[in-house]
Write a structure and sequence with these properties.
Blueprint lengths: L3 H10 L2 H4 L1 H26 L13 H6 L17 H19 L11 H4 L5 H6 L1
Length: about 130
């Protein structure tokens, strides 16, 4: 069994690093996490993901327009998988694919709302 005197002697012989090791490790973890968050935010902004993120405060008014209910020509998520369903899906997919393929992928304008056709109504889609 260790006596109190031995514990006091051990504590007196500890270096500064040994005494404050836990605090230093916690501060190191906080610093590393802060740096990683800064890197993640810079990647978020530089990759263009910030341009299409509708949850940002500046896009609160657009969120209502971009809801799923605004899409009239969507394919139903349930039903019978027969020849007619496959043809309907192929027709809808082909129409959307034609509009999206026409955009140059390396153009800075490619991630804008009009290029992605997020807010297009069926009338504007048929005009293109």
């Amino acid at each position: 069994m260790i006596s109190m005197e031995e514990l006091r002697n051990d504590a007196a012989e500890m270096t500064q690093w040994q005494r404050h090791r836990f605090f230093a490790l916690i501060m190191g973890v906080i610093a590393v996490s802060f740096i990683l968050v800064l890197i993640a935010l810079s990647l978020y902004n530089s990759s263009g993901a910030a341009q299409v993120d509708l949850s940002r405060p500046g896009y609160q008014s657009i969120q209502k327009e971009a809801s799923r209910g605004a899409i009239d020509d969507s394919f139903p998520s349930n039903g019978v998988l027969d020849e007619k369903a496959f043809n309907d899906f192929d027709k809808l997919y082909g129409a959307h694919a034609k509009r999206v393929v026409g955009v140059d992928s390396f153009d800075p304008q490619a991630l804008e709302t009009k290029s992605l056709q997020l807010l297009d109504s069926p009338e504007t889609a048929t005009q293109q």
